[in-house]
Amino acid sequence: MNTIILHEALASFLDFLWSLEQPVLLAAHGARRFDIPVLDRALFRCSLDEEFQQLGSSFLDTLPLSKALYPRLGSHSLVNLSDHFLGIRYNAHDALEDVTALQELYYCWNLNPRYVARWSF
Fold first, then answer.
1. What is the rounded CA–CA span in Å between residue 44 and residue 76?
2. Domain of 40?
């Protein structure tokens, strides 16, 4: 796949988010510690941070959520959660596989919207 500059990638991402029903909930496993700081820095560097803020999107960090839902699990890694709940082992840290596993877990957990709202920020 050909690469594109960061600004183009982020602009395409924002266009995609705008095309969805608003507000958008962005879920990531470990979002507070990794995904959000990386995204914030990139948006700021490309002067797209204000446009992103206009979306009014919220975030759901599934790591602390999984710890609250299933405190007795030994590990709350995405690989372990996928194995435990879905019976699927996958190649960790492959972005596409991470996203797919997280989406499948989210649907598997069938969370009450109030609970999701409680853990969103």
1. 31
2. 6-16+25-119
